[in-house]
């Protein structure tokens, strides 16, 4: 009787070990499945448990960050900015010596005015028309006298020739008028070119932004060459959020123009994100090594007490709902 429980235990031991192997095998399979899913990205960012697609490695960057260059050679006589200055599109931030350019504009204005007066001058034509009318009347009178033998053929033909001459003078006046009109157009073009040369000496902000100055940027009083950097202009009212979005099996949801929500972590990843409705501005046509599309969306930025809420370099996510 004492050996019966031992026999029972020995009989049950293989079955218990088989059950443990099955449980461990299932756990390993689940673990492998969670690592193999294409949406199990860094930190679980790409989980689709809620039906959303969420990006990886997202961050805020400048949409436009450019070096404002000098366009012509000359001395930088004015520099109207300081680092941190806020400028508007079209605002003059610097001037390259423009004295000769301004004089050239004034000269071309005078030449254009002269050409305009000549183009509008019709005195020669009006005089030629009057001369022809008088010559026609005199020729008609001489023809009548010739018929009465009171004038010679020579006098009659001479006056008829004067009529033809007056007609040719009208044609010549018309040609001169057209020539003066062409000269007026040419002077207008020359004035526009002179004004363009003057405008190139005025360094203007191409868009609204914040000025940043580096040591290698030109200083007031320096001689600059075409392309010399004057300052950097950083756009802050519109920024770009760039991130990797899952590619496998998501092509019908990720495309340029697709609605999305951008989450910006102004206080770090552990803080509550700023959520902004946007749309994808670009999706890369190819898939990168992370089996992802590189994508970006443009977002609007705002100021509070003179400070921008969102800044380039902040972590961010793009969420496709």
Automatic annotation (TrEMBL):
GO MF entries: efflux transmembrane transporter activity
Protein name, as recorded: Macrolide transporter subunit MacA
Domain Multidrug resistance protein MdtA-like barrel-sandwich hybrid, first and last residues per copy: 65-229
UniProt KW Coiled coil keyword: yes
Regions crossing the membrane: none
Keyword Coiled coil assigned: yes
GO cellular component: efflux pump complex
Superkingdom classification of source: Bacteria
Annotated signal peptide: 1-29
Pfam assignment, any one: BSH_RND
Coiled-coil annotated residue ranges, if any: 151-178
Keyword tags: Coiled coil, Signal
């Amino acid at each position: 009787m004492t050996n019966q429980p031992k026999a029972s235990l020995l009989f049950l031991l293989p079955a218990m070990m088989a059950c443990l192997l099955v449980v461990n095998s299932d756990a390993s399979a689940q673990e492998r499945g969670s690592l193999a899913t294409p949406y199990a990205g860094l930190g679980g960012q790409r989980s689709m448990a809620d039906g959303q697609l969420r990006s990886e490695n997202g961050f805020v960057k400048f949409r436009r960050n450019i070096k404002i260059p000098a366009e012509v050679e000359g001395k930088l006589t004015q520099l109207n900015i300081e680092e941190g200055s806020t400028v508007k599109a079209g605002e003059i931030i610097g001037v390259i010596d423009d004295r000769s350019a301004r004089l050239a504009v004034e000269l071309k204005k005078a030449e254009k005015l002269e050409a305009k007066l000549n183009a509008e001058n019709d005195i020669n034509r009006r005089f030629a028309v009057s001369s022809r009318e008088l010559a026609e009347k005199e020729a008609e009178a001489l023809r009548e006298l010739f018929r009465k033998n009171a004038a010679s053929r020579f006098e009659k033909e001479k006056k008829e020739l004067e009529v033809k001459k007056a007609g040719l003078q009208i044609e010549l006046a018309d040609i001169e008028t057209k020539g003066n009109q062409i000269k007026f157009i040419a002077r207008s073009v020359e004035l526009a070119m002179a004004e363009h040369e003057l405008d190139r000496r005025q360094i203007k902000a191409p868009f609204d932004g914040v000025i940043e100055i580096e040591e290698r940027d030109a200083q007031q009083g320096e001689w600059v060459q075409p392309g010399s950097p004057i300052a950097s202009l950083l756009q802050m009212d519109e920024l770009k959020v760039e991130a990797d979005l899952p590619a496998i099996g998501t092509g019908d949801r990720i495309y340029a123009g697709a609605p999305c929500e951008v989450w910006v972590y102004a206080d770090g990843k552990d803080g509550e994100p700023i959520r902004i409705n946007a749309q994808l501005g670009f999706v890369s046509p190819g898939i990168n090594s992370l089996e992802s599309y590189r994508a970006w969306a443009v977002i609007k930025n705002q100021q509070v007490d003179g400070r921008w809420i969102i800044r380039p370099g902040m972590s961010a996510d793009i969420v496709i709902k």
